[in-house]
Design a protein that fits this description.
This protein is an alpha/beta fold and about 425 residues long. The chain has seven helices and eight strands. Strand 4 and strand 5 form a beta hairpin.
Length: about 425
């Protein structure tokens, strides 16, 4: 109760210690605030002073920096000027050294050029001398070669002249013998030639019509050589074609009536004369006095068409309808222009093919002959060149057996 006080008005009790403590705190706080205020004022004054000093220091620093920069620029200018002077001096020294070196190089170059010019002159002189020597040697070799070639030509010409005379004499003798033999052969070989063509005709018909019957006519039957018995696709005999082969230099008109008589005897339907020489009034195959006349080259085509006509006639005979009309129609067709034109077209086709084949053979023979002449020419030129080189170089040239004179003569003789 001694440490507390009661308010007379509100009767509120206060602690003396707390009141004193509160008053002491308030006093201390007030002192601290005043002291803090003084310290704040001192700090601000000090800060202002430092700011002023900093400004002054900054000004002094700038002034000193400006002075330093000026001195530095002056020093740099001096150093730069000294460096430029030194560089100019060094450059002048190097330039002078280079000029001296250049003069020395020019002198060396002129000396080298003089040496090169002298060397080129000597080289050119040597080349000219060498060329003159080669030209002289070549001239001598050409002269010797020409002399050797002329001598060889003379010898070869003499040899060839003798050989040609011998060959001409031999050819004349052979021609005489051949002419005599030809006369004997022509006198005794007409029958043989005829038999050869007969056999060729029979073989041609057998090859072209293997299903037909091709038979030789006996020697007692005059004017006919073989008969072709025509068979259709089922093997039935349809008719006959009688052939007469003639291999003479002239056409005899009596052959036609004789062959017609033989046709009646053999009961053939068509008669054909195969001749080497056509009648004077006929340029190609055709019908004359009811007998067909053609060459050996045309017989295959003609026989093919005639065979087809005979088969059609047989078919007409076998037919019961309009029998007579068909036979007359086919007969008129066989002897009419339409059938002739048809056969003419077929045979002309075969003849054209034959002529083309003969032209191709002639062209190929001509080409082979030209190539043979070219090969002979190349061989002759090669032999001449080899002989010239061998005559110049002598035994130093390697021997070529195929080009030796003995072998060449042997091949020419053969």
């Amino acid at each position: 109760m001694q440490n507390s006080i009661i308010c007379p008005n509100c009767k509120h009790e206060f602690s003396v210690e707390k009141v004193i403590e509160s008053q002491v705190k308030d006093g201390i706080q007030k002192q601290m605030l005043e002291q803090q205020k003084k310290l704040q004022q001192q700090f601000e004054a000090r800060q202002n002073e430092l700011t002023e000093k900093e400004k002054k220091f900054e000004m002094l620093r700038q002034q000193e920096n400006e002075i330093f920069q000026k001195k530095l620029q002056e020093r740099e200018a001096i150093i730069k000027k000294q460096a430029e002077q030194k560089a100019i001096s060094d450059f002048e020294m190097k330039l002078k050294s280079l000029e001296e070196e250049n003069l020395l190089q020019d002198a060396k170059l002129k000396e080298a050029q003089l040496k090169e010019l002298e060397f080129r002159k000597k080289t050119k002189e040597l080349q000219e001398k060498q060329e003159m020597m080669e030209l002289e040697v070549q001239r001598k070799m050409d002269a010797e070669r020409k002399l050797i070639e002329e001598n060889a030509r003379k010898k070869e010409a003499e040899s060839q002249f003798m050989k040609l005379n011998e060959k001409d004499l031999l050819i004349q003798t052979l021609q005489k013998n051949l002419e005599e033999m030809n006369r004997k052969v022509e006198q005794g070989s007409m029958q043989v030639q005829g038999e050869v063509q007969e056999l060729a005709l029979e073989k041609l018909l057998q090859t072209s019509f293997p299903f037909d019957k091709i038979e030789e006519v006996g020697k007692g039957v005059r004017g006919a050589d073989c008969i072709q018995t025509i068979r259709n696709n089922i093997g039935k005999e349809c008719g006959k074609i009688i052939f007469e082969s003639k291999n003479t230099k002239e056409f005899v008109q009596d052959w036609i009536p004789k062959l017609k008589a033989d046709m009646r005897t053999a009961k053939a339907d068509v008669a054909v004369i195969v001749t080497k020489v056509m009648p004077k009034d006929m340029e190609q195959f055709g019908l004359k006095d009811e007998v067909w006349i053609c060459t050996f080259n045309e017989v295959r085509a003609l026989a093919t068409v005639l065979r087809d006509g005979v088969i059609k006639i047989e078919q007409a005979k076998a037919s019961q309808e309009n029998k007579g009309d068909k036979m007359h129609t086919l007969y008129d067709y066989l002897i009419g222009n339409e059938f002739y034109n048809h056969i003419s077209a077929v045979v002309q086709g075969f003849t054209a093919m034959k002529a083309a084949l003969e032209k191709e053979k002639a062209a190929m023979n001509k080409l082979w002959k030209e190539r043979e002449k070219q090969i002979e020419l190349v061989s002759l030129n090669t032999t001449s060149m080899y002989g010239s080189i061998q005559g110049i170089a002598g035994n130093s040239v390697k021997e070529i057996k195929e080009l030796e004179l003995g072998n060449e003569q042997l091949s020419l003789g053969e």
